[in-house]
Specification:
heterodimer, A: 523 residues, alpha/beta, 7-stranded mixed beta sheet, 15 helices, globular, B: 447 residues, Aspartate Aminotransferase, domain 1, Aspartate Aminotransferase, domain 2, 2 domains
């Protein structure tokens, strides 16, 4: 260790988590430990000042809830402490690169948050008279126009609440279209082996059987296998493009042609639309339906697992079967058609109550308007550039799954380069946490052994990319050098060490319960 | 462009490092015929000020609920949300994080979900709850699918008091999956009618309380009848604040309880995003949809939380999953949890009592208007009235006079022949002055 002339160490003393140091109370500096609200809240405490009702609810008699509910309360300052302390145990995009492949963790502009909170959007009721919400309908219409223009599709169903909900919407529209022409024989949906789990889950959820399409050595749909499996029993194919290997399906137009020739529809999983937005329109590729994750491509925040929004664009063939409600341009301006009547009778139904994720529409529209047509094209180009930069700079120390040719918005590596090191993909990913980064998507797609899928997005600077690359190169070197403990024990510097997921699943404890009295526990 | 950090020099350096001569080299796999020759036909980029102007102008054309006497409910409710809730959910660590797949660096989100699940289980009186679904209506649809899996039966019976858009959401999913549905005729107080519709094929009975007409019902008898026939009892609640006053679904024998959680912590947002609450008996949990957060320990024995029982889910089980759901409603669930922690049991009960009080006052005021008949016998914070004119016309006339009077039932169920029924809701945000304005204006419109 070197020291400066007042005795202050100038190099780190230790690289281990605690350095052998123990605080007197178990404290960990600014990282505060925090128990559950059920262990610290007051059973008679509240942080909301409300007047007591002056009327008795005698009219409700036996309907009244008389037993304690079991909800502790906190004052306002305690509430802030509790949740701010918890927040500090989370990684976030605002903190560092979040390279989860297929998840598109890009910057979430705060302007969008501000706009979504305008009272004219946030404080309007879905069922107040339509004459009192023309601005909301106009916003939905403008969003729809942008989505249709960017995708080159005829119609859009705005209401689906997330990507998987959008898949459901698209598959139901496809089913309705087959039924409308009296074709009830189609019971199969084709899905590539590399697909997101939601694709087969969606198809199976509504009663289709799922058949897998093989993949070629260069990571794309095997056309010969597709052709062999297409037939009069196939209702649709579901293909992600760019696919989950981060590659553009070169034969996409041929895939669409073969699909249509077999009487089936082409559902495109649009999770990766961010790679081509503004440059390529899925409508020009022969797609019949595609969901757009507003929380990916159009940057509405992921919020620790939602809410999302998954509008579905539809081709001319599927447009008549869109779910209710939808917007109609009438003589008195925009109107929301909430029931499938008259010309709209082919609608397959309703995806949910009300009219979809308005709060997400406002955010996504603010994002699109901010970028404009030119900016969105730049989004796709920078996303692809950043991913290829990572692939190029890590290609010599890790093993790209598809080394030949460029990738799109994400770079996929396999674990061949870790062979014999004693370090697994999981270990490597956990060690990234110690270096200050969120792990990449691991073990997905399933077609690549020990997959590591890295998606930087366009909102990372070259400085941050270089920092990330340097960290991964250093880790790769450590893995090669046999520094296995660094990986097996990782993470060392996170709020918690590796968690026992097997225990959690074997003995599920899904809620807090008051501790059993000692007498009971002894039994 | 303010959101794009790369400079032209960065781009050149990076292309050089890649060995590409230009950006088009990276798009070589795209068929040439599919590449757009120029930008799509949409406006160019806009600064913050410009975007604020455009969206501000659109927002200003809508009548915000807080600016007028406001009486809409029917599945979405205007409540006051404490300022600290919105502050906390906008913290970067909550707002800009992903689904907690890496538990070591997502304990914040995970502990919140564990608290959320516990709160939801307590509120609904059920044993366990999941980490949220999209909203109440999709939660109801998922519950029906789950009941069909559990009972291996193919029919759902829905009460006539179920919110019609919930019923449509259930029908959509159920019919696509081969589950038949029986929807009983709309009836203000007809929950008991479902008992007669239960048979040996019935997978579940779906009953809403308080129902879409506001009627609060003790559904214990229905639960017993359903279970005696081997079916599951699904209780739907659209107004989560009612849990602070009325008997819980669990107390009334529910096997699955689903609810819309928007009332707690979340704004009206013109219908979304909201948060679906889903709770059930513990023995059924392996058939439940959506994320579940569970307690465990880390390598040093410290308590921690993880997503668990994921072998039910699409990313593991693919076509054998219990649901296709992936993204749910995390941030809305966080808002719910914070608001509920602020309220506590004391605050929730007080809030519920205020809602009930304002609704009773509103009912009393409207009952005094000539030609108005109150239809709902027992209610929490919303009720139905019969008007001497079509409710939709009355609502439009009152809107022109600056009162948003409620929801015409015909808007939810146009073919039901109940054009004269108006659904009225009053929460704690309704003042006595609002009620007075409503009564006065309604009397004039009906005169």
């Amino acid at each position: 260790m070197s020291m400066n002339n007042v005795g202050r160490p100038t190099t780190p003393q230790s690289t281990t988590a605690s350095g052998g140091f123990a605080s007197l109370t178990g404290g960990r500096g600014l990282l505060q430990d925090e128990v559950l609200i059920f262990e610290r809240g007051g059973w008679n405490k509240t942080g909301v000042d409300l007047p007591e009702a002056t009327m008795q609810a005698d009219d409700l008699g036996d309907l009244l809830r008389r037993e304690p509910i079991g909800l502790p309360g906190l004052s306002e300052p305690e509430t802030l402490r509790h949740y701010v302390r918890l927040s500090q145990k989370n990684h976030a995009i605002d903190l560092a690169l979040y390279p989860l492949g297929s998840c598109t963790m890009k910057h979430n502009p705060r302007l969008n948050e501000k706009m979504a909170r305008l009272a004219g959007f946030a404080d309007i009721h879905p069922l107040q008279p339509q004459s009192t919400v023309p601005g909301a309908l106009e916003l939905m219409d403008r969003l729809a126009h942008w989505l249709k223009t960017l995708t080159g599709m005829l119609a859009v169903a705005l209401t689906p609440k997330a990507g998987a909900h959008g898949e459901l919407c698209g598959i139901l529209a496809i089913r309705a279209a087959h039924e409308a022409r009296g074709d009830a024989a189609r019971k199969v949906v084709l899905v590539p082996t590399s697909a997101h789990g939601t694709n087969p889950a969606t198809a199976a959820f509504v009663g289709y059987s799922v058949r897998e399409i093989a993949q070629t050595d260069d990571g794309r749909v095997d056309l010969a296998d597709l052709e062999a499996k297409l037939g009069p029993d196939v209702a649709a194919i579901m293909v992600t493009n760019p696919n989950t290997c981060g590659l553009f399906e070169r034969d996409i137009v041929e895939i669409a042609r073969l699909t249509h020739a077999a009487g089936a529809y082409f559902y495109c999983d649009g999770a990766n639309f961010n790679a081509i937005v503004g440059r390529v329109r899925p409508g020009d590729l022969g797609v019949d339906a595609m969901h757009i994750n507003l929380h990916k491509t159009f940057s509405t925040p992921h919020g620790g697992g939602g809410p999302g929004a998954g509008p579905v664009v539809l081709s001319e063939a599927l447009a008549p079967f869109a779910p209710t409600p939808w917007l109609v341009h009438g003589p008195d301006g925009l109107r929301l058609e909430e029931e499938a009547i008259g010309e709209a009778a082919q609608a397959f139904g309703r995806m949910s109550a009300f009219h979809g994720q308005m709060g997400m529409y406002v955010r996504a529209y603010a994002y699109m308007r901010s970028h404009g047509a030119d900016g969105l094209k730049q989004v796709a180009e920078d996303a692809v550039l950043n991913a290829n930069y990572i692939k190029a700079r890590l290609g010599d120390v890790m093993s790209p799954a598809f080394p030949d040719g460029p990738c799109m918005h994400e770079a996929l590596f396999d674990d061949e380069w870790l062979e014999g090191s004693g370090v697994t993909t999981l270990d490597f990913a956990k060690a990234m946490i110690d270096e200050g980064f969120h792990p990449m998507t691991m073990y997905f797609p399933l077609v690549v052994h020990g997959a590591m899928l890295i998606e930087p997005t366009e909102t990372e600077s070259k400085h941050e990319l270089d920092r990330f690359i340097a960290a991964l190169r250093a880790l790769a070197e450590a893995a090669r050098a046999g520094d296995v403990d660094r990986f097996k024990g990782a993470p060392h510097l996170a709020p918690l060490r590796r968690l026992d997921e097997t225990l959690a699943a074997r003995k599920p404890r899904l809620r807090w319960r008051p501790e059993a009295p000692a007498s009971l526990a002894a039994e | 462009m303010r959101y794009l950090p790369l400079t032209p020099e960065d781009r050149q350096q990076m292309l050089h490092a890649i060995g590409a001569s230009g950006i088009d080299d990276l798009f070589v796999d795209v068929p040439r015929s599919a590449v757009l020759p120029g930008p799509v036909d949409l406006p160019g980029f806009a600064g913050e000020l410009e975007v604020e102007r455009e969206l501000g102008a659109l927002a200003a054309r809508n009548v915000a609920a807080g600016t007028v006497p406001f009486f809409c409910g029917a599945g979405a409710y205007r409540h006051h949300v404490p300022a600290s809730v919105d502050h906390i959910i906008q913290r970067s660590e909550f707002l800009t994080s992903y689904t907690p797949y890496q538990p070591e660096i997502a304990q914040g989100t995970l502990q919140v979900l564990f608290e959320f699940q516990t709160q939801v289980a307590a509120l609904t009186g059920m044993e366990v709850a999941n980490a949220s679904l999209y909203d109440g209506s999709t939660a109801a649809a998922e519950a029906v699918m789950m009941a069909s899996r559990v009972t291996r039966r193919g029919k759902a019976v829905m009460s006539g008091g179920l919110h019609p858009q919930y019923a449509q959401s259930v029908e959509n999913l159920a019919h696509a999956s081969g589950v038949a549905t029986v929807r009983l005729d709309p009836a203000v107080d007809g929950e008991d009618a479902v008992i007669a519709a239960i048979d040996a094929d019935t997978a579940c009975v779906v009953v809403q309380t308080p129902n879409v007409f506001g009627t609060a019902t003790d559904v214990t008898r229905i639960s017993a009848a359903a279970q005696a026939a081997g079916a599951l009892m699904i209780v739907v609640t659209t107004e989560a604040v009612s849990f602070g006053m009325l008997k819980s679904p669990g107390e009334m024998g529910a096997d699955i309880a689903v609810a819309e959680g928007q009332s707690i912590g979340n704004a009206l947002n013109f219908g979304g995003p909201y948060v679906g609450l889903f709770a059930c008996r513990e023995k059924l949990v392996r058939q439940a949809p959506g994320r579940l957060c569970g307690e465990t320990v880390d390598a040093e024995g410290q308590r921690g939380f993880v997503l668990t029982l994921s072998t039910r889910e699409q990313h593991i089980r693919r076509d054998k999953a219990t649901s296709n759901i992936c993204t749910n409603s995390g941030l809305c669930a966080l808002a719910f949890t914070i608001h509920m922690s602020l309220l506590g049991e004391v605050g929730l009960r007080r809030l519920a009592a205020l809602n009930h009080q304002q609704a009773v006052k509103t009912k009393n005021a409207l009952a005094g208007v000539s030609g108005v008949e109150v239809l709902t016998p027992r209610f929490f914070n919303e009720f139905a009235v019969r008007l001497p004119k079509p409710a939709a016309d009355v609502v439009e006339a009152l809107a022109a006079r600056g009162v948003i009077a409620g929801v015409p039932y015909s808007r939810l169920n146009p073919g039901a022949g109940m054009d004269d029924v108006l659904l009225v809701c009053a929460t704690e945000t309704v003042t006595d002055g609002d009620i007075d304005a409503f009564r006065t204006q309604l009397a004039e419109v009906l005169a």
